Amino acid sequence: MKLPDRTGWSSLVETTQDPAGGSGYGDHPPRMGFFTDTSVCIGCKACEVACKEWNHVPEDGLDFTGMSYDNTGGLGADSWRHVAFIENRRPVSTVDLGLPAMGPPAGTPGIRPDLPASADEEEGQLQWLMASDVCKHCTHAACLDVCPTGSLFRTEFGTVVVQEDICNGCGYCIPACPYGVIDQRKEDGRAWKCTLCYDRLGEGMEPACAKACPTDSIQFGPLDELRERAQARVEQLHEKGVDVARLYGHDPQDGVGGDGAFFLLLEEPEVYGLPPDPVVTTRDLPDMWRRAGVAAAALVAGMAAAALGGRS
Amino acid sequence: MSDARVTREGLEGVRPGREASSDYSTRRPRKGGRRGGRGEQPTVPDADFRSYYGKPVLNKPVWSPQDIAGYLFLGGLAGGSSLLAAAAAVRGEERLARVAKVGAASAGVLSLAALVHDLGKPTRFLHMLRVVKVTSPMNMGSWLLAGYVPTTLVAAACEVTGRLRPVGAAATAGAAVMGPAVASYTAVLIADTAVPAWHDGYREMPFVFVGSGAMAAGGLGLLGSSQRAQGLPRRVAQLGSLAELSSSMLMERRMGMVAEPYKKGRSGALMRVGQVLAVAGNVTALLGRGNRAAGVAAGTTLMLSSAITRFGIFSAGIASAQDPRYTVQPQRERLTNAGRGARADAG
Ligand code: SF4
User: What is the distance of C-alpha B201 from the center of its chain?
Assistant: First the structure.
């Protein structure tokens, strides 16, 4: 019997888009994930609240950040969903996306053409972007790869989950994650992040955030289906003239082998605080080990040279 | 509804403060109203860089500098010393061998203590050994230390007590075999992260680390050996410093803008102090040949240099993780060079 390897080694050799199968699950459900369509996000933060309620995530600081309506700040041990708010000036678009916006509609001529153009005409329309961020449940997950205890593991749904009874709080996963998702909970020392509601999935329920999202900005389902749906949505938006719509994390060819939770964005990823081209750090690990081996050999050679050097 | 529509002066009537300014820069749209970007040429790689309110993309490493930078230093010192102990034993320089063996054992134990102390749940240290996982340098390192530290303890104990000499010799040899791995694996430990200043230096970092470890071990040897036995530790320190300095130079040159934290700010200052001390220690050792006091001064300086450099590398990593530029800019360049991810909006 082939023993399952849910602790990561497989991800180095695995080329498949079936991380659960690659981790040794024979018969397993399809890979599940999130498609977050930010073009219909209204910034209500129901996802953040639902996540906290369901998962008993403690309070993450009652701060005022001054960052538009975002007082969460970012993902961390106590924030598994994070709604980003961006007040963005961009070239005037003629398409009404139904997004909240301020200023005159596109193409409105100045009332007095002889006067200098208004700020809106000069700089474009003010666009208020909202996006609910979450753990990407990477195909090649750095957090899982570097975890020394096997606490982080791959579930049968292809998601990435921390086993809190195993985690010893070494903190390695935190700088390993290229998205800045997982973090240490100071009070208890262990690492925490989104589980894609592993407990709910097991019961055939959808994750709390997706359930609570009133606009279906967060869609949950088999990843294959979500990818098709996302492709159709981005094409639809392009047809409407929303050229800025683009998918993020959908591509199995990207540096992490594609995300289990991917997005439709209306701006560059970095504007939402997402890395534009993340790469799983363990991709270079074989080369790192090789170089460490050469360096160790060089140390032996140097020591031998130093020891022989005085023999004259 | 905005007042701007009905006001002669455009947005004049809008209450200030509605447009909370965010940190990323706005690019002025081209006049002439050309809009829509599909099929357009990708915009020139942007010198202006954008981020989410200047917040870092990565989460800040939670490792404490004392524990983990200290761990990097002690691992190098221990690994180098084990090798030095074997070389000294072969050459019959007994006092040097004893100093190196005791040094390796002490540094090994301390490094293990630092690693355990840094855990969020120190009582669960042994969970490190519930799996064998090559994709996790920390797991491999734990196994390595689990073999290495007891071996150095046996070697040191036999040396000090003078008993069980064959066992001591075997332990000395064993520690010398594992030592180089202990000194170099820590480079993989920090490079195998998304931290730009650590990851991007992964090619040269192991050489920086073994160089630094050899320098520290040479320093310890100079500190503890008699006048007549200074030759070996001095040469070890020289070679080690040379390797460390040249590899970090190469590393910084290759890394481009991501190398900035190694040159600027607090981390840059630490790196420079480390370099100056390395040169000073070697010069002192060379000029003060055969002088016990000069040996002690040189040895202390060299060990200090190695430690400070490790703290410099550690804090350069933290600085690079804290500034989104080091994450976003190289990735953006990579996309532009690959012709992928062209900015879809009209520039
Ligand atoms: S986004 Fe980060 S925390 Fe989530 S699976 Fe990927 S590496 Fe792990």
Answer: 9
